[in-house]
Design a protein that fits this description.
This protein is about 40% helix and about 15% strand. It has a four-stranded mixed sheet, with helices on both faces. A four-stranded antiparallel sheet has the order 5-6-7-8. The longest helix has 27 residues.
Amino acid sequence: MRYCCLVLALVSVVSCARLDRLTGGPEKKEEKPQPFGPTGIPPELRAKTGGTAVVAGGNVPAVPANITPESDIAWTDPDNPEAGIPELSSLMEGPKRGPWEESDKAAFRRASREGKPVLIWFTDSKNSPGCKAIAAELFSKGEFESWAKDRFVRLRVDSQVRQRDPNMSMDEAATKEANMREYVATLKKRYKVLGHPTVLVLSPDGEVIGRYKGYRTGDADYFWGLLKQGDTVAQKRYGEWRAGLEKKGYREWQDRSGRKVFAKLLAYSNGNLLLVEPDGGRSKTVESKLSDGDREWIRQQKAARGL
Protein backbone atom coordinates (compact mmCIF):
# COMPACT_ATOMS: atom_id res chain seq x y z
CA MET A 1 0.00 0.00 0.00
CA ARG A 2 2.82 2.37 0.92
CA TYR A 3 4.63 1.46 -2.27
CA CYS A 4 1.58 2.39 -4.37
CA CYS A 5 1.25 5.83 -2.74
CA LEU A 6 4.92 6.62 -3.38
CA VAL A 7 4.58 5.67 -7.05
CA LEU A 8 1.50 7.86 -7.46
CA ALA A 9 3.30 10.86 -5.89
CA LEU A 10 6.29 10.49 -8.23
CA VAL A 11 3.99 10.25 -11.25
CA SER A 12 2.22 13.44 -10.16
CA VAL A 13 5.50 15.39 -9.84
CA VAL A 14 6.76 14.21 -13.23
CA SER A 15 3.45 15.10 -14.87
CA CYS A 16 3.54 18.63 -13.45
CA ALA A 17 7.12 19.11 -14.65
CA ARG A 18 6.18 17.98 -18.18
CA LEU A 19 3.16 20.28 -18.17
CA ASP A 20 5.37 23.26 -17.16
CA ARG A 21 7.71 22.57 -20.06
CA LEU A 22 4.83 22.41 -22.52
CA THR A 23 3.15 25.58 -21.30
CA GLY A 24 6.31 27.60 -20.72
CA GLY A 25 6.35 27.21 -16.92
CA PRO A 26 4.23 28.78 -14.21
CA GLU A 27 2.57 32.10 -15.08
CA LYS A 28 4.73 35.08 -14.13
CA LYS A 29 3.26 38.23 -12.61
CA GLU A 30 3.52 41.33 -14.79
CA GLU A 31 6.16 43.72 -13.39
CA LYS A 32 4.87 47.22 -12.77
CA PRO A 33 7.11 50.21 -13.68
CA GLN A 34 8.86 51.83 -10.73
CA PRO A 35 8.17 55.61 -10.67
CA PHE A 36 11.19 56.25 -8.43
CA GLY A 37 13.81 54.16 -10.25
CA PRO A 38 15.07 50.68 -9.39
CA THR A 39 15.24 51.35 -5.65
CA GLY A 40 11.55 52.26 -5.35
CA ILE A 41 12.47 54.86 -2.70
CA PRO A 42 11.07 58.41 -3.14
CA PRO A 43 13.73 61.08 -3.82
CA GLU A 44 13.04 63.04 -0.63
CA LEU A 45 13.85 59.99 1.47
CA ARG A 46 16.98 59.14 -0.45
CA ALA A 47 18.24 62.72 -0.17
CA LYS A 48 18.14 62.51 3.64
CA THR A 49 20.59 59.62 3.65
CA GLY A 50 23.36 61.83 2.32
CA GLY A 51 23.33 60.40 -1.22
CA THR A 52 22.84 62.23 -4.47
CA ALA A 53 19.38 63.75 -4.80
CA VAL A 54 17.39 62.16 -7.59
CA VAL A 55 14.14 62.66 -9.45
CA ALA A 56 11.46 60.17 -10.35
CA GLY A 57 12.57 57.85 -13.11
CA GLY A 58 16.22 57.27 -12.24
CA ASN A 59 19.40 58.54 -10.67
CA VAL A 60 19.55 62.02 -12.19
CA PRO A 61 21.82 64.43 -10.28
CA ALA A 62 20.21 67.50 -8.76
CA VAL A 63 21.12 71.08 -9.74
CA PRO A 64 24.68 71.84 -8.51
CA ALA A 65 24.77 73.76 -5.24
CA ASN A 66 26.78 76.62 -6.74
CA ILE A 67 23.98 77.56 -9.15
CA THR A 68 21.37 80.02 -7.89
CA PRO A 69 18.01 78.18 -8.04
CA GLU A 70 15.41 79.81 -10.26
CA SER A 71 13.07 80.00 -7.25
CA ASP A 72 15.59 82.23 -5.44
CA ILE A 73 15.55 84.90 -8.13
CA ALA A 74 13.00 87.69 -7.72
CA TRP A 75 11.75 88.03 -11.29
CA THR A 76 9.97 91.34 -11.63
CA ASP A 77 7.56 90.28 -14.36
CA PRO A 78 7.17 86.57 -15.29
CA ASP A 79 6.10 87.52 -18.83
CA ASN A 80 9.04 89.90 -19.29
CA PRO A 81 11.85 89.05 -16.84
CA GLU A 82 14.11 91.80 -18.14
CA ALA A 83 11.58 94.56 -17.46
CA GLY A 84 11.72 96.76 -14.41
CA ILE A 85 15.14 95.68 -13.09
CA PRO A 86 16.45 98.59 -11.00
CA GLU A 87 19.83 100.17 -11.51
CA LEU A 88 22.44 99.06 -8.99
CA SER A 89 23.49 102.67 -8.33
CA SER A 90 20.00 103.62 -7.14
CA LEU A 91 19.87 100.64 -4.77
CA MET A 92 23.31 101.39 -3.40
CA GLU A 93 22.40 105.00 -2.70
CA GLY A 94 19.04 104.26 -1.13
CA PRO A 95 16.83 106.71 0.77
CA LYS A 96 17.99 108.72 3.75
CA ARG A 97 17.24 106.84 6.96
CA GLY A 98 16.78 107.62 10.62
CA PRO A 99 18.45 105.49 13.29
CA TRP A 100 15.65 102.89 13.20
CA GLU A 101 14.18 101.09 10.19
CA GLU A 102 10.45 100.37 10.13
CA SER A 103 10.44 97.43 7.71
CA ASP A 104 12.07 94.06 8.39
CA LYS A 105 12.59 93.54 4.65
CA ALA A 106 14.50 96.82 4.34
CA ALA A 107 16.48 96.08 7.50
CA PHE A 108 17.67 92.66 6.38
CA ARG A 109 18.50 93.87 2.88
CA ARG A 110 20.69 96.59 4.41
CA ALA A 111 22.26 94.04 6.74
CA SER A 112 23.14 91.78 3.82
CA ARG A 113 24.67 94.64 1.84
CA GLU A 114 26.52 96.26 4.71
CA GLY A 115 27.60 93.11 6.52
CA LYS A 116 25.98 94.07 9.82
CA PRO A 117 23.81 92.18 12.30
CA VAL A 118 20.22 93.31 12.88
CA LEU A 119 18.97 94.65 16.21
CA ILE A 120 15.17 94.44 16.58
CA TRP A 121 13.48 96.33 19.40
CA PHE A 122 9.92 95.21 20.15
CA THR A 123 8.39 98.04 22.13
CA ASP A 124 5.11 99.39 23.44
CA SER A 125 6.08 103.04 23.58
CA LYS A 126 2.88 104.14 25.33
CA ASN A 127 2.18 101.48 27.95
CA SER A 128 5.50 99.84 28.87
CA PRO A 129 7.58 101.45 31.68
CA GLY A 130 10.54 99.26 30.69
CA CYS A 131 10.42 100.54 27.10
CA LYS A 132 10.35 104.13 28.28
CA ALA A 133 13.29 103.49 30.60
CA ILE A 134 15.52 101.77 28.03
CA ALA A 135 14.77 104.49 25.49
CA ALA A 136 15.72 107.26 27.94
CA GLU A 137 18.72 105.56 29.56
CA LEU A 138 20.32 103.81 26.59
CA PHE A 139 18.86 104.04 23.09
CA SER A 140 18.61 107.84 23.05
CA LYS A 141 22.14 108.44 24.37
CA GLY A 142 24.69 109.91 21.95
CA GLU A 143 27.43 107.46 22.98
CA PHE A 144 25.22 104.47 22.26
CA GLU A 145 24.04 106.02 18.99
CA SER A 146 27.62 106.50 17.77
CA TRP A 147 28.46 102.89 18.57
CA ALA A 148 25.26 101.30 17.28
CA LYS A 149 25.13 103.03 13.90
CA ASP A 150 28.42 101.38 12.92
CA ARG A 151 27.58 97.97 14.40
CA PHE A 152 23.90 97.28 13.66
CA VAL A 153 21.04 97.80 11.31
CA ARG A 154 18.27 98.68 13.77
CA LEU A 155 14.57 97.90 13.42
CA ARG A 156 11.90 99.19 15.83
CA VAL A 157 8.59 97.34 16.04
CA ASP A 158 6.13 99.44 18.07
CA SER A 159 2.75 98.11 19.17
CA GLN A 160 1.47 101.70 19.07
CA VAL A 161 0.52 102.12 15.42
CA ARG A 162 -1.95 105.02 15.52
CA GLN A 163 -1.64 107.24 12.45
CA ARG A 164 -1.95 111.01 12.82
CA ASP A 165 -0.98 112.14 9.33
CA PRO A 166 -3.16 115.21 8.59
CA ASN A 167 -2.94 114.47 4.87
CA MET A 168 -4.74 111.13 5.30
CA SER A 169 -8.48 110.65 5.33
CA MET A 170 -10.02 108.73 8.21
CA ASP A 171 -10.48 105.66 6.02
CA GLU A 172 -6.86 105.78 4.81
CA ALA A 173 -5.57 106.12 8.37
CA ALA A 174 -7.77 103.25 9.57
CA THR A 175 -6.57 101.00 6.74
CA LYS A 176 -2.93 101.79 7.43
CA GLU A 177 -3.38 101.17 11.16
CA ALA A 178 -4.97 97.79 10.47
CA ASN A 179 -2.11 96.82 8.14
CA MET A 180 0.46 97.90 10.71
CA ARG A 181 -1.23 95.94 13.49
CA GLU A 182 -1.19 92.84 11.30
CA TYR A 183 2.47 93.43 10.46
CA VAL A 184 3.46 93.86 14.13
CA ALA A 185 1.48 90.75 15.12
CA THR A 186 3.17 88.71 12.38
CA LEU A 187 6.66 89.70 13.52
CA LYS A 188 5.87 89.06 17.19
CA LYS A 189 4.57 85.60 16.31
CA ARG A 190 7.56 84.84 14.09
CA TYR A 191 10.05 85.71 16.85
CA LYS A 192 7.90 84.47 19.77
CA VAL A 193 7.75 87.83 21.50
CA LEU A 194 5.47 87.82 24.55
CA GLY A 195 6.40 91.01 26.42
CA HIS A 196 7.99 94.45 26.17
CA PRO A 197 10.69 95.40 25.81
CA THR A 198 12.18 92.48 23.92
CA VAL A 199 15.42 93.08 22.03
CA LEU A 200 16.82 90.58 19.52
CA VAL A 201 20.20 90.42 17.81
CA LEU A 202 20.17 88.52 14.53
CA SER A 203 22.78 87.68 11.92
CA PRO A 204 22.16 89.06 8.40
CA ASP A 205 20.72 85.69 7.30
CA GLY A 206 18.04 85.87 10.03
CA GLU A 207 19.47 83.58 12.71
CA VAL A 208 18.61 84.77 16.24
CA ILE A 209 21.91 85.23 18.10
CA GLY A 210 20.68 86.95 21.27
CA ARG A 211 17.30 87.44 22.99
CA TYR A 212 17.00 89.97 25.81
CA LYS A 213 13.67 90.34 27.62
CA GLY A 214 12.73 93.12 30.02
CA TYR A 215 14.67 96.08 31.37
CA ARG A 216 15.17 97.47 34.85
CA THR A 217 15.91 101.13 35.51
CA GLY A 218 19.64 101.69 36.01
CA ASP A 219 20.74 98.64 33.97
CA ALA A 220 21.89 100.57 30.89
CA ASP A 221 25.56 99.54 31.13
CA TYR A 222 24.68 95.91 31.80
CA PHE A 223 22.22 95.80 28.89
CA TRP A 224 24.74 97.46 26.58
CA GLY A 225 27.26 94.79 27.54
CA LEU A 226 24.79 92.10 26.48
CA LEU A 227 24.37 93.78 23.11
CA LYS A 228 28.14 93.94 22.64
CA GLN A 229 28.37 90.20 23.28
CA GLY A 230 25.58 89.57 20.80
CA ASP A 231 27.33 91.73 18.22
CA THR A 232 30.55 89.71 18.57
CA VAL A 233 28.76 86.39 18.05
CA ALA A 234 26.69 87.78 15.16
CA GLN A 235 29.79 89.09 13.37
CA LYS A 236 31.37 85.64 13.58
CA ARG A 237 28.19 84.03 12.27
CA TYR A 238 28.08 86.54 9.43
CA GLY A 239 31.62 85.63 8.43
CA GLU A 240 30.65 81.96 8.18
CA TRP A 241 27.50 82.78 6.20
CA ARG A 242 29.40 85.02 3.81
CA ALA A 243 32.18 82.47 3.29
CA GLY A 244 29.58 79.89 2.32
CA LEU A 245 28.06 82.23 -0.27
CA GLU A 246 31.45 83.16 -1.66
CA LYS A 247 31.97 79.48 -2.51
CA LYS A 248 28.81 79.77 -4.61
CA GLY A 249 30.09 82.74 -6.60
CA TYR A 250 28.96 85.72 -4.51
CA ARG A 251 31.45 88.54 -4.04
CA GLU A 252 31.60 92.18 -2.99
CA TRP A 253 31.08 94.70 -5.78
CA GLN A 254 31.99 98.38 -5.48
CA ASP A 255 31.11 101.39 -7.61
CA ARG A 256 33.27 104.41 -8.42
CA SER A 257 31.99 106.19 -5.28
CA GLY A 258 33.05 103.37 -2.95
CA ARG A 259 29.54 102.04 -2.28
CA LYS A 260 29.42 98.27 -1.92
CA VAL A 261 27.01 95.40 -2.47
CA PHE A 262 27.40 91.65 -1.93
CA ALA A 263 26.03 89.87 -4.99
CA LYS A 264 26.57 87.23 -7.67
CA LEU A 265 26.99 87.85 -11.39
CA LEU A 266 24.10 86.24 -13.27
CA ALA A 267 24.79 87.56 -16.76
CA TYR A 268 27.31 89.68 -18.66
CA SER A 269 26.99 91.02 -22.20
CA ASN A 270 28.87 93.86 -23.90
CA GLY A 271 29.70 95.60 -20.63
CA ASN A 272 26.21 95.15 -19.12
CA LEU A 273 25.94 93.16 -15.88
CA LEU A 274 22.98 91.51 -14.16
CA LEU A 275 23.55 90.86 -10.44
CA VAL A 276 21.55 88.95 -7.83
CA GLU A 277 21.82 89.45 -4.06
CA PRO A 278 21.45 86.64 -1.49
CA ASP A 279 17.78 87.49 -0.93
CA GLY A 280 17.02 87.15 -4.65
CA GLY A 281 16.84 90.87 -5.45
CA ARG A 282 18.27 91.68 -8.88
CA SER A 283 19.85 94.82 -10.28
CA LYS A 284 21.69 95.87 -13.41
CA THR A 285 24.70 98.07 -14.03
CA VAL A 286 27.40 98.75 -16.59
CA GLU A 287 31.06 97.87 -16.31
CA SER A 288 32.20 101.50 -16.57
CA LYS A 289 30.45 102.37 -13.27
CA LEU A 290 32.35 99.74 -11.29
CA SER A 291 35.61 100.08 -9.38
CA ASP A 292 38.98 99.36 -10.97
CA GLY A 293 39.19 96.17 -8.94
CA ASP A 294 35.86 94.89 -10.26
CA ARG A 295 36.76 95.76 -13.83
CA GLU A 296 40.04 93.88 -13.47
CA TRP A 297 38.12 90.87 -12.08
CA ILE A 298 35.83 90.94 -15.12
CA ARG A 299 38.86 91.16 -17.44
CA GLN A 300 40.40 88.09 -15.79
CA GLN A 301 37.14 86.14 -16.05
CA LYS A 302 36.84 86.98 -19.75
CA ALA A 303 40.47 86.02 -20.38
CA ALA A 304 40.00 82.69 -18.62
CA ARG A 305 37.09 81.95 -20.96
CA GLY A 306 38.87 83.14 -24.10
CA LEU A 307 36.55 86.13 -24.56
